[in-house]
Amino acid sequence: MNGSRYRFSLMIGLALVLSFGAAGCSKKNETATTTGSSAPTTTAKGGTGTTVKATTDSKKAGGMCGVWPPAATGEPSAMKQADSAGFFVWQDVTGWHLRARGTTSKEPFKGTIRGSRDMTSVKESPVGGGTKVELKGNVVTFEIPASADLKGFDLVAGCAVDQLQFALLVGSNPAPADAIFVGAQGKAVNAVFIEQKVT
Question: How confident is the model over 97-106, as pLDDT tens digits?
Fold first, then answer.
């Protein structure tokens, strides 16, 4: 009788040990799975956070197919001043933009933009503003009537283009440097200038 009780107690003990052991293994596996599925996708430094931030910066500076100079990014602040005349050039995630405004001169704003490769598309903005703009291959030619209102066009250069050369005229003369504003900081440049992708 005692032998039977002993064997019964031993079997119960083994069953409890096996039960706790299995639960422990299951918990470890659950922890490992949880850790794997909740790994951070962004971090302040390094890891996947670096990749995500680079992607975001690329979009701000011109898209996933290269980064244009940060100095050319964002609308020129001078463009918001109604008495500020000249060319206003900038780029953002949608492409390149050129506007012109003449407060005193009656001469049209003219010029060309030449890309390193064939470009994608160009569109007058605002539509019906009287701007003449045409894209043939890698060259945009345009003429914008002198007006107190902002007029111009929007240009999608395309991923293959890594350089743009601007040549800007007022009438038949090179535009003065102080009448050309590029990017949010309103940096004045020469009548002929080049924008090159930095990556």
Answer: 999 999 888 8
